[in-house]
Every structure is written in structure tokens, then in C-alpha cells.
Specification:
This protein is an alpha+beta fold. The chain is built from 24 helices and 15 strands. The chain has four domains: 178 residues, Helix Hairpins, CATH 1.10.287; 205 residues, Lambda Exonuclease, Chain A (Alpha-Beta Complex), CATH 3.90.320.10; 56 residues, no CATH class; 121 residues, Ribonuclease H-like superfamily/Ribonuclease H (Nucleotidyltransferase, domain 5, 2-Layer Sandwich).
Amino acid sequence: MATGMVRCPNGGRCGHQQHRQGSKQYKECLARARGGVHSGQGQMKPVLKGAGHDVEPSESQMDMARMSDVDMAREARRNIFNAREIALELDGEELLERMDDGSAMFYAAQHELSQLESEFDAKKRQYDILRATDTINTPKIHQASEELYEAKVALDGKRAELDDARAVTAEYARESGDRFLAGVQKASPDMLPGSSMVELEEGDVFTSGIGGRDANVIINGSRGDVAEWMNEKIEGKKPETQAAKRSLARGNAWEGEILRRFSERSGMTVLAPPGLMKDLRDPSAVFAVDGLVADDSGNIVGVVEAKSVTVTDNTKASERWEDGPPERHILQAKRYASKLGLQKAIVAGVINDGEMKYYEYDVNDPVDRDGNTIADYEDKFREMHQKIRFHKENPNEPRPKAPKRRGTSTYAPDVNDSSINQLAAWNGTSYRSAQKTLARAMKGASTPRAKREAMSELLRSNNPLDRKTPIVYLDFEMTGFSPGAGARIIQSGIVISHPDGREEVIDELHGIDPRDLYRNGTGAQDVHGISPDMIRGKEPFHKSHAQRRLRDMVDEGAVFVGANAQAVEGVFARSGNVDMRPERIVDTMWHSRNVEDKQAAVDRMAASGASNPDLARATESRGGALDMSDKLSGFAERNGVFYDPELSHNALGDAQMTKRAFENFVGTFRGGGERR
């Protein structure tokens, strides 16, 4: 390789294998390799802009603009692998330059991201205003919803580009860190003072013991936080979204480089850490540390926790690292240091792939208001570990439950949005009319029981199945649980019950952005069974027949029945596809919690002698007991419908079960007997 020349950072796709570092062509290839260009209206714009002025796109950028979305996704993945190969041939200074470029790119992309977020917020405000004020001109609302949806797609696309670019930078950081760790002494458990730790060949920190990451929830978590955390431990669940997994992988890649920068900044001697360790005297202690530090005599004196940190304008103050790292990181380092018999707990972080910060703490500093140190919590850590082991070994024992908030020990309807919306949807009236009716009925109802009886009487006075507009039963499968976090509809199941007795069934799979599909797949495929191949090339939901029919139903004044009204409305509002108002959605979960007589369902089952063979089979695993949850499974079972595992987590199957269960519920609730 000629002096001053480096390999093309984009793997030679420009037609040249080498470039002069710092040249225009080199910078263009570097931007392409880091996913820093994006398609938009037929042209490419460079990520880095000068003084707010756009730069004319290059020919290579124009070529990139012509790529399909899936080609861009594949290119982004190739670039990450190419970065791994390129990093092997770069020297230390070149690796640092690549990381510096990555940090500059981060800030430039963050600026563009902020602009897109502002555009999305403006579209959302416009959409919300129309929903609140324009009840007649539905085409105007539809147009606003489409604009909101497009703004959300653009925002998600930019976030994906930023993720891909940071993944490339992380590969350079990984190589630099690996070289550093290979050149320093590796610590072993027997080097730790007074420690009974041994190194494990394999294991899982999350499920095996109480690691440093668990210290914060045990010390500072609410009872609800602790209960949720314990159940995750018991079940061995790692609650990680695709975004969280990518963030974790990026953090792991940066660990060695952060240790190198810390050593350089602090002047301390850093040792490469052992692998996974456990304490022979304390089964609760199973963990792996990022790094260790030694004094001038070579004695190990502290732990270093390395963090890759993302800070944006929207990051809350406690996470910004301005006065130190978040409390959870400090407790993590102290937990490790305490168990290893060390004095120093150090937390070091690289902010936005660039700025280096570190903070040092004494392991004996108080960790709570009572002056307790981390060592004072060891009994608590062991106690929690014993409880988790007990429930793992005794799966039939009652699980820890989060306490109910004061004043909500029992669900009870009230004159609030949820109750008003449900009454309006049930009766087919306006929100304001339902509000007045409910306020009159609730006057003098001061106890939860009285409120439930008042609401029940109002509901019994009308039959929601006897109406002149369609009833739509619906369910969706999505790539995630939160449409606000970018989850997309990949299957819709819809049953339209027309007033004349006709039944219209819609069962559609929907495509998503090919970049998202290539990057993240279809989400919980093991749950819904929808593979990427099943939806590849299909029309997205916002262009589908299902979406058009739902819009028709909105315009016809239909009522919609779903297992969770808030989720159903959120799917459409966040996705910007259909203006589905909450006062038109019957929520079976709300009825389960607020008015359904669950004991009556138990009595019906007992009186019938479990004559329904499907229900008998469904309840066999519970000793004949009904599912008493408020989810669709419980609502269906208590209303004579077998929650078929072959149909569950299938959009149409759930919609059909919702229809049968709701019809039975209406019959029994109003005293008309069951229908099947």
C-alpha cells in the first residue's frame, strides 16, 4: 500500500481499492460505509453538512439513492462486516481517526434526527387538533393521519441509519480495544485479595445469580419493580427489544476501547478481566466485570465498569453523566468491588462515541439515606436469590405480585374517560351524552360496589348487538408491543358483523419497510408464527384492503370490539392509518375488570358440570379452575369459549374468539343466556 493511502472504507464498491486518506472520494466512501446517506425524493445528501448548507450529491451518492430499501438494508449490514475486515489492517492512529469521524457523524445525524422529531411532533399536534375539532370532514383527518404516518416512517428510518452508522464505528472500537487488552496482563480470580471467586467456563449471569446490574432494583426499586424483576429472573426472561440488543452489542464492542482510554486518561494500570466468575461461599454472586485496576505494586485495588453512553437533547438529567453516572452504574461497580474485596469502584463511559468521562468511588461510601454500604445489603441479595431459586424449583407456588396502588385495590368504574368511552361505545351515543348519563347514574355512588352496580344497570338497559351500524371485531399481530416505539402491523384479523346478518371476514398479512424486516425480522416470531418470508413483498397495512375497509367502517359509524381498546386505538393513532376514536371501541378487558361477574362464571361452570368439553380440556391443567385473568384468554374462557392455542396469537383467530366471547358475555350479562 502506497504511503498516505488506505483501503477504501466501503470495500472498493466505488471502483477503487485505495484512497488518499482525507480525500473527497475517501470521505464519500466513509459516509456510505457508515450508513450515513439516505434516500429521499430521488437524491442523496451527505450526513455532514457545512454551516447549514446542502452540498450537491456526488455520483456515488446518486447511485445509492437508486437503491431499493432492502438493498440499502443489506448494504448497511455488509458495511458492518466490511468494517470488521478493514479494522484489522488499520494501525492505532487510523482506528482513532475512524472513531473520531464516527463521533462527528453521530452529532450530525442527531441534528437531522432532531429536525425529523420536530416535524413528527408538529404533524401529531395537527392530527390531534383535527381529531378533537373536526368531526365531519373525515377526508381531512385521513390526510393528516397519512402525513403523520409518513413522518413516523422518516423518523424511524433516520434512527435505523444512525444505529447502522454507530455499529460501524463500534467495530473500529472493538479492534482497538482488543489490541489493548491483548497487550496487558490478564487477571485471574486467585489474584484477588481474600476472594473465594472462581472462573466459570460457561453460564448466564441473568439467571444464575445476583449480578451488579441487579443491585439497583433491590436497593432502590419499588415493590412493583422488585416483583417484576423477580418474575423475569424466575422465568429466565431477558426483556430486550431488538433496539436493546443492538445497544448491548455496541456496548460490548466498546468495552476494551473504554478501558484503553481510561488507562490513558487516569494513568492507572488496567488488567484484562477474568471471564464469568462465581463465589464459592456465596451462590448469589455470579458475575463478570469489565476491567480491573492495580496499584504501583501490581496489587489489584479496584473494578472498572465500562459504559457506552448515548446522550441526546431529550435525555433526562439523571442519565446525562454531567455530575456522574446514573446510580445504577455506581451500584453495579460497588457490588462487584465489594464481592471481590476491592476498595475502588470506577465507572468509565464514552459519551456519544466520543467524549471520555470516568468517576471513582470508595466501596464503603453509603448507598442509601440510612448510611448503609453495599456490603450491608449482602444479606438482602442472598435472600432474594433464595426466593428466586425457591420459585424456580416450585413453579406451582404463587409468584411475587406487584402491590396495587392505594385507592385501586379493586377496579371500579367512575366518571372518567375510560368509563365514558365504554358507555358511549356500548350504547352508540356521543362522548358528551354518555358523560352526562354516567354522571347522573354515579351521583351518590361512593363505594366501588355501588359504582359497579350503577354502571352495570346502565349497560343492561341497552343491547350493543342490536344496532343499525356494523360491529367490527378485530385483532392485530405486530412486530412489537408499542406502535409508538416503531412496532408495525404485520397481520390483521377482522370480522365485520353487518346489521342484515352478513358476516365479512378479513385475514391479511402485511409487509413492512424492507430495511426493518431485514434488520429486525417480524418480532416475536415464536409467538405469532409469522416469518419474514411470509410478509416479504406484501402491501403494508396503510395500503391494504383491511385498512380501507376499516376506514369505511369508521365512516359508517361502526362500533369496534377488541381485547384492549387503548392498544387498538394506539395502533392506529401512532401508525397514522385510521382515525379510530376511543368512544367507538368496546374494550373486553375493561368489562372484565369493571363489570363482569367472574364469580357467576365460576358458578355457571360448576352448575354445568363442565359440560363444555373444550372448556373442560382448557381448565384441566388448573384443576378445573377457570382462567380469571382480564386478558382475552380469561374473558373468552369465562364466557364459554375455548381459548384455542392453535388459534391464539393469530389475528383472525383472536378476532373470532373475541366475537363469540363478547356475544356470550352480552347475553349472560343482560340475563339472556349464552350463545355459542
